[in-house]
Specification:
The complex is a heterodimer. Chain A contains 7 helices and 15 strands. In chain A, strands 1, 2, 3, 4, 5, 10, 11, 12, 13, 14 and 15 form an 11-stranded mixed β-sheet that branches. Chain A is globular, with a radius of gyration of 17 Å. By secondary structure, chain B is α/β, with parallel strands linked by helices. The longest helix of chain B has 13 residues. The radius of gyration of chain B is 19 Å and the shape is globular. The mean pLDDT of chain B is 97. Classes of the chains: A alpha/beta, B alpha/beta.
Chain lengths: 257, 297
């Protein structure tokens, strides 16, 4: 843990929350994004909306802790409880501004794998896509969240569950997926962006993390904000007291954070 | 034609070995676990299970050897991640998996419900869900020319739904998010509905906008209180998250799974006895009561 004031995952949640802009419609899935949306709509993005593939539509935090999108506090006082075809149709016609995705593996173009990985010569089966492939293909932008572990950063992912950018330097221009592609990768040590070619670059390191150490986890030479003309590598802002209090209100036992 | 109102064991005995069964259709909400456990008690096997995400239910059916094929977008434990019985069965080749995204399984069932052979989507292309499968087709939209993927219809033998209330005829009130209940019910040859309570038909007819399923689609309707535990049911009980976490710890090994099944599936005669084993406070303490709705003439 980099700080005695907050955990790595609390910082990931507040960093992810800041990727939601006021007025956005966000596609929220499992785990940390469940908390991140609630923080965003309680702070800088009061006019944000959340949709969940189960059919839930919300404009406010849940009154009670939620383990999943279908926990009753997330259904209670929702804007609507509808169905998957409705929510996925909003995504398909381009109405979703930002979607959140996790992954067991990511490559330099933001392709994500949650289906199967190879460990010591044997295939290991993972749960699969859920709605991740759909969000990756069709959201205007996506934010990827994962722990900062070398085994997760791959030259080539074992299976492309959720497409990122093409490897031809043209990003999504010649790519069959209609959405905008990944805009950020938030790990437990740093935040990355994707340049106009669709390649990952280091945007900021979290407080206490070291640039060399952060980049050493990757099997390729990761470029930095300086390298791609996007300013300098900054330090990720720490969670504010207000944000931390909100995270601990929405996740009182630290189940997710 | 009205559904047959009958006990759970009679309803489940209609499901043959080798059937294709869609279940867990409202995602983490209102999962028909009581039906799953009765399928295991009756030894129904060689099932092809169909669903969007499956939060424990498919893992339990797979762990007990009832499944030969999975057609789904995600199988695991939403509280804890891995479904160990699914993972082991896939890695050993005991079950085959047709990988979907949530939208592709929704569209496959929607096509079935609409009576059309396929539906197009702008999802899937560029993923290995598309590339490493022969089930989908890429084509040019004949009107505008854009490349799109076609998802073929799925018409399951059975769709299984747990709802809040139903009439004895099989007309069903279901509220809270519904995931892909509607397309699956429309696509399926037979529908088995379990409900927290069977109510007078006048209750259902007092609020027709809340009806999700009508009787001519339903083969069997069963009163089955607590039929979705440990998943939550709006208006009835909360998610039993500790149960999901304990299941995850207990079923990492095959023998651990057998211990679990011997208590929760084979150790009880029916759902009433199952309910006596649950020691968790899942009560809804401050229910939201919907504003009164009036119809009229």
């Amino acid at each position: 843990m980099a700080s005695d004031r907050y955990t790595d995952r609390e910082l990931m949640v507040t960093t992810a929350a800041r990727e939601i802009e006021d007025g956005d419609t966000a596609f929220v899935g499992m785990r940390l994004p469940l908390i991140a949306f609630q923080v965003a709509v309680s702070t800088h993005a009061p006019d944000a909306m959340a949709v969940y593939e189960s059919g839930v539509v919300r404009d406010s935090p849940a009154d009670g802790f939620i383990h999943t999108m279908c926990d009753l506090p997330n259904l209670d006082r929702a804007v609507a409880t509808t169905d998957m075809i409705d929510i996925m149709s909003r995504l398909q016609r381009g109405d979703i501004d930002v979607g959140f995705l996790g992954g067991a593996e990511v490559d330099r173009y933001g392709n994500l794998n949650t289906t199967r990985v190879n460990g010591e010569g044997e295939d290991i089966r993972l749960p699969g896509s859920g709605g991740a492939c759909d969000i990756a293909c069709m959201a205007e932008r996506t934010v990827l969240l994962m722990p900062h572990e070398p085994r997760r950063f791959a030259e080539e992912v074992t299976y492309v569950t959720s497409p990122g950018y093409a490897d031809d330097g043209n990003g999504r221009n010649n790519h069959p997926a209609p959405g905008g592609g990944p805009s950020a990768l938030v790990t437990s040590k740093a935040t990355f962006g994707f340049d106009e070619r669709g390649e990952l670059y280091l945007r900021s390191v979290h407080p206490g993390a070291d640039v060399t150490d952060v980049l050493a986890a990757f099997p390729w030479e990761v470029r930095t904000a300086e390298d791609v003309g996007e300013g300098v590598v900054e330090t990720t802002p720490e969670p504010t007291d207000e944000e931390l209090e909100l995270v601990r209100t929405f996740d009182p036992d630290g189940f997710w954070t | 034609m009205a559904a047959s109102r009958e006990p759970l064991d009679v309803a489940v005995s209609r499901i043959d070995a080798g059937s294709t069964v869609a279940a867990g259709l409202a995602l983490e909400h209102s999962i028909p676990f009581a039906v799953g456990h009765e399928l295991l008690r009756q030894g129904v096997n060689d099932l092809s299970v169909i669903g969007p995400i499956s939060d424990l239910l498919f893992d339990q059916l797979i762990g007990d050897g009832a499944v030969s094929e999975v057609r789904a977008a995600w199988v695991g434990n939403v509280s804890a991640g891995t479904g160990y019985r699914f993972r082991d069965a896939v890695e050993s080749g005991e079950v085959t998996v047709e990988n979907h995204s949530n939208f592709s399984i929704a569209l496959a069932l929607e096509a079935g419900a609409m009576g059309v052979p396929y539906l197009p989507t702008r999802s899937l292309l560029g993923s290995d869900i598309f590339e490493q499968s022969d089930q989908f087709v890429e084509t040019a939209d004949p009107f505008e020319g854009e490349q799109i993927a076609l998802v073929p219809a799925i018409e399951p033998d059975w769709a299984i739904v747990h709802a809040q209330r139903a009439s004895p005829h099989g007309d069903v009130h279901l509220w809270g998010n519904t995931g892909i209940v509607e397309p699956a019910v429309g696509a399926a040859e037979n529908v088995l509905v379990t409900a927290e309570e069977i109510v007078d038909p006048d209750v259902i007819k007092s609020d027709p906008s809340r009806v999700a399923i009508t009787r001519e689609q339903v083969t069997s309707v069963v009163e089955c209180p607590f039929g979705a535990h440990p998943s939550p049911v709006a208006g009835h009980y909360n998610r039993d998250n500790e149960y999901y976490l304990r299941y995850n710890r207990q079923t990492e090994t095959e023998s651990g799974f057998e211990d679990w099944a011997s208590k929760w599936v084979y150790g009880v005669a029916d759902r009433d006895e199952y309910a006596t084993l649950v020691d968790a406070d899942l009560e809804i303490t401050s229910p939201t009561v919907a504003a009164e709705v009036q119809y009229g003439q």
